[in-house]
Amino acid sequence: MRRSTLLKKDPHLTKTEIGLTTLFLGIIIIGLKMTPPKQKLMPPVAKRIPKDVTIHGDKRIDNYFWLRERDSQPVLDYLNAENDYTFSKMKPTEKLQKKLVQEMRGRIKEDDATVPYKFGTFMYYTRTEEGKQYDIYCRKPGSMTGEEQVTLNLNVMAQKHDYLVLNAYKISPDEQKLAFTIDTSGAELHKMIITDLESGRILDDNLSNLDGAVEWANDNKTLFYTKLDEAHRPYQLWRHQLGDEQSQDVLIHQENDDRYNVGLHRTKSGAFLKMSLGSNMTTEVHLLDRNDPLGDWKMVQPREQGVEYYIYHHGNYLYRLTNKDAINFKLVRQSITGGGDEEIIPNRETCYLKDITLFKDHMAVLERVEGNLTIRIFDFQEESWHALEMDEEIYSVEFDANYDWNSDFLRMSYGSFITPFSIYDVNLNTHDKTLKKREEILGGYDPDNYITERIWAPTHDGKKVAITLLYKKGLNLKGNNPCFLWGYGSYGATYDPWFSSNIFSMVDRGVVYARAHIRGSSFLGRQWYIDGRLKNKKNTFHDFISAGNFLAEEGITSPEKLAIYGGSAGGLLIGAVVNMAPNLCKVAIPSVPFVDVINTMLDESIPLTVTEFEEWGNPKEKDYYNYMLSYSPYENVEQMDYPHMLVLAGYNDPRVQYWEPAKWTAQLRSMKTDQNDLLLKTIMGAGHFSSSGRFDYLKDVAFYYAFILDKLGIKS
After folding, report:
1. What is the predicted pLDDT for the residue at 37?
2. What are phi and psi of 391, to 5 degrees?
3. In the chain, where are the structural domains located?
């Protein structure tokens, strides 16, 4: 059968050629009969070394605890073996991967620039060049007609590193110096570099082991920065004088409560620096006059468990966004000299007050109403409000770079699943919107070819979960389509429907893209978040399962055509879901998944453990232990069939240690009863956020896209 098929495929063969070919094939066949059969590619099997991890009288044995032995040869051998196996299994998709990369890269305008913003006397912007992986930071004096000055070219820096991420980019008040922080491993251990912008000279003030936050005082020679402890927690604020060694720097504050991080910002007015001491649920802010870098930091309000507040400065007032007696936050202000609070915006049950930005004569507020973000503008002179109208029913909007205190324009970013990322300037007096730039999508992209809509899925307890859809126009939505369902659901983080050109490599192949706005986010306000944390965490998983089931019940897809994805805490979501509802989907992609919940949260030496107690609970308390044990993916693997899974990890990841996905994969391999693929891919030179170069990142995306498409039977 195989021989005749081969011959029929080429009608241009002569009779002689056919005869020779037949003879040749016969020789091959004889040879094949004499050659031992090719061995089946077998997955690595992690050795089992039992370790007793009993607590609360609950006997538990962890067979894969040894995978935590970072940099040991057995661990490296295992991870490399898993990578080799994964790449071997994915080899048939290499052509598809390359095609996907070409598609995604083909939509990118490689030589591009951002909309410039005014900061001091210069206009600042970033640009990219064709073929280059990283941003180039630039400025021009006065206006965009001036001569360009390159302040930082990350492509030059990246020549010495396989991984490079810029965290802080801070121009001194006199605009003569630049302080920036970079991570060159993915471990999020930053170093600070200071350059003289006039000469281009790098100063000797190289500082290391930083969280990444940096701010200048107004004297142009004093810098403040935050430093990490052994558990990777930003716990100290330091003061640095240009020209000093790091050993000479002065410790301003050390936060000894392990639940709290130290944050550093400046007010938009430029008058104050802010030291924010915050846990997941509580904050305390201290202010420093930027004109007095050696002065005292003054506390605004003492910390009060469960009370969050954020400080903004305007003239003689401090504005405070707070949830004290206000679940969806309220806005109050008080005089800088003291006195009581004046309520500006009250708490509202149906509106979550997310953020504000202040100008000399105006204030803009960002609010979430029924899932959508809205912007209202307040005129201090007229004492009047105006709500901005948006162009679509389903969209995303945020404040963008607004550094000019005296500006009459609000800069905002806007987009949707079908509208590329756009920058608008809004006249604060007339409220007219001016489109400054819309991301140019190459390759013939036309938004009219696509539809986005929102549907609501009933849940296990009577709530309804929003699902935002994107699909190609003309597709029969109720036609049992392949579907890609994405979820997160933690920390109150809400992933709004921003544009991503990459996803169209799925959508153009007939895949329905769906994003579930499950509990644990703030999509429907703060209560929506509260109902998905601590001992309500299982609501997050049930919501996602309800979303997947609803998509199938509505005929949009079916379990055999559904792929699911989540990263980090979203990886925990996917891990819990495949245990709770293994038949929900055909394919699952848990990316950097937080799946070893109990063991990680019991180890306070691991980065983020103690600071996460307010999100997940402390398993040293038996009630929390029992609840977390009931859903932790690693502890709940069973002898049953699982979907096809590609597990993604970063070896240098400080947020979800590489061993969590590695241990979970090993546990799944030892228990699952199906023949479906289970692959583990660990990027050995990156951390939590995959590859850093914009084109290298596309290869990472194409890899798991190809896995999904292949398993859903979409081969081209």
Report:
1. 52
2. -85, -20
3. 131-307, 454-711
